[in-house]
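# step 3/5: fold
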Amino acid sequence: MKIRFLIFCLLAFCWSCNSSKPQDSIDLKGSWAFKIDASDRGEAESWFTQSLEETVELPGSMATNDKGDEVNLQTEWVGGILNPDWYNDPNYAPYMDSSNFRFPFWLQPVKKYTGAAWYQKEVDIPDDWQDKAIILHLERCHWESSVWVDDQKVGSQNSLSTAHRYPLTSYLSPGKHTISIRIDNRIKIDLGENSHSISDHTQSNWNGIVGEIYLESRPKTYFSEVQLFPDASAQSVTVRGKVSAVDAQSTPLNITAQVSGKNFEANLDEQSFEVNSEGAETDFEFTYDLGEEAKLWDEFDPNVYQMKLSIENGDEHAEDFGFRDIAFEERQFVINDRPTYLRGTLECAIFPETGYPSMDVDAWKKIYSTIQAHGLNHVRFHSWCPPKAAFIAADEMGVYLQVEAASWANQSTTLGDGKPVDQFVQEESERIVQAYGNHPSFLMMAYGNEPGGNQYKEFLAEYVNTWKAKDDRRIYTSAAGWPDIAENEFHVLPAPRIQAWGQELKSIINGRPPSTNFDFTDTIPDDGIAVVSHEIGQWCVYPDFKEIERYTGVLKAKNFELFRESLEAHQMGDLAEDFLMASGKLQALCYKADIEAALRTTNQAGFQLLDLHDFPGQGTALVGVLNPFWEEKGYITAEEYSRFSNSTVPLARLDKRIFVEGESMEAKIEIAHFGKEALQNVTPNWTLKDTEGNTIVEGQLDQQNIALGNGIALGNIAHTFEQNNQPRKVVLEVSVDDFSNHWDLWVYPQSSPTIAGEGIRHVAKLDASILNELQSGGKVLLSLGKGKVAADKGGEVGVGFSSIFWNTAWTGNQKPHTLGILCDPEHPALQQFPTEFHSNWQWWDAMSHSDVVNLNELSDDIQPIVRVIDDWVTNRSLGLIFEVKVGEGKLLISGVDLRNQLRQRPEARQMLSSLMAYMESDAFAPTVTLSTAQLLSIQQ
């Protein structure tokens, strides 16, 4: 492997300039002749000597130029489909014909093409380029490019991550020439069909060239590679690179270097260095001394330097860089001697307008601004590498990046088994580091995502060791997800989280009563290596159908159209916005719980969310509080989100969130503080308020200094809740300096576990006598509970407290299948059970002790008092609490068990009390009648 690395380094032609196209260049953007080569005849038939009849605009893809095939049932996708027989589902039957085809599992391109296509342009080489080196620059080809000049083939390249650069000096003389480029987006090297570098799940498997396209002329002796190795402690920069020469001759070269501040004032002395040219390619190394203290680069002070290099009577070149130190201390990242906690989100190549990543610096600044506004400082690029513009923007804004070598090798291929993916990963890693390695934002690197294979650990151990020895400007891990091998400088592991794949209703959030007094300490391996949690969250929200009109580009939300029509077919189209808002509130609650638990874990170094914005692929994973355009959906703002996800977050450890009157709330207050500097002489404040904002009690903790880190105890607070026989929600808020956080709590009266209303029968099951009583005008409360509803009437629905994890289509229908509750808080049945319109922690008990009833199997006219929001794929009308007429009687049906273990379940006692009071009132007046046969069919 090391030999292959060395051979590639010697042969690769790479350029790492992060400026725009050179001054002495010919911009090739604009109109290009074009032809599809679906039968692979172009090279054999010498299309490079022919005039192609169609035209396209570059930069762009075939899709942005409306070229390719219509999408239909026969379309071949790049990306795994876990339920390949979906087209046999009768629910999708109306959408199978070509005129109305809708694909359910990811965004649907307007046009789709996989294969070869030719792009051709005539160029006029000026006379003054006669004695210069000429290079063709093609930024972000997808995938393999092959280049001809007139009738001569120059070669082929296949990087997914870096510009394809072709030396054309010997092919281009002054005058007119034809450049023909063949782009082939077939998967000739299997990197894993779900890799975001190539998959239709997110960006789409497009064909084209989408970045800068130009011919540049260079002096005969020019810089072909420049790598900068800053050393803040030595106040110097070691410069290593290559000088290429068109005329191979040995001669001394005088290189001058000057450093300046790119985004701050600094102009340092020009320094000269002599290099002995060794012919066609010369390696050089020298050290530039700043002569003053280096300004450091990090999230708080993103100081970017620029080094300008020139060869006497020859080439000029500029490179951006930054000074930063990375170390580890007590399993925490330490950047520039400051403990740092990585608060990250994923970017999975999600660009719905174009179907390919943005090449624009300002567009990336907008993305990073949104990320920072939500309190995050880090982005992981899942199984792909972003373009140059993303690094430039991250440098300027102080965002830490984890870059990956374009692979997710555990599905259609595996890693370390000698397949072509092994060599590609090695070579692509080399290209990525050569192209982007000088950027200070390029902090972390991994091969890619979640590897598989018999030898992947051995392969990745060598991969990490090679890079650690070769380039210490960043830190390396084997892969995101696993393995936690000893060679890693940091791990990215899935265990620290409140819901993991396969845990279903046994997870922390679904299997344990509400608490904030836990962390992930015991899930961290005992090997001393820093751990960043892998893809935490994955909490879903109901689709925002208003979003459909936002898809004005090459990808359309046909999946959303399917879900909307399904909702309308189930007579609930008018509830779409309510479903979005209610499920969104629950989603935000789940993310808060996940993130706070991570921040409470002192031996954890960070987290990577999946995701801050939606992931539109893999079955449609609506896991973001933002949509794919990085826009808010309306149920949580960036300011609200950043209260629990930020450089500084006050935290409270509470054994429980549910109390009865007379009990004491005891909370241990701590803080995760990873700001720019320690806090001096601060006095933490706390308040307990009611829902109207009135202060119940308030207090202060001791004035203190707060160092950088987490798990920092600030003090304890306690309050005994008064006995006023009033159910209520209260809010605990803690403020430290300019940062505050809050937690919702509930207080219930010490009511008797036996609650009965006047003239009301409370039963666990309907039988003939109960039905007769109802027919004669009786009032009955039917309390069901988990496992009590017949499968075909709703019992098959997996009810849990949390929202759906990832999505049911891609997890094998893992539970929970639901997205929380929706209710009218003002409904008289809920007057003694304080609630919002959405799930909050007081609903944990109900959702953990319930089945739902599929009202579509009974009557579409039933409007439940409390509804459970179903998966958007099935859109069943699910009742948790609803009422019906039976003969002359009135029946209230609760999917929640309100009969058992009430002494230990104050929420259930209070809900029962509230429902009983409602049933005793005149407001209890159901209008929809069900037959006895229908009612009996509900029960197991």
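# step 4/5: annotate
The longest strand covers residues 709-720.
# step 5/5: archive (pending)
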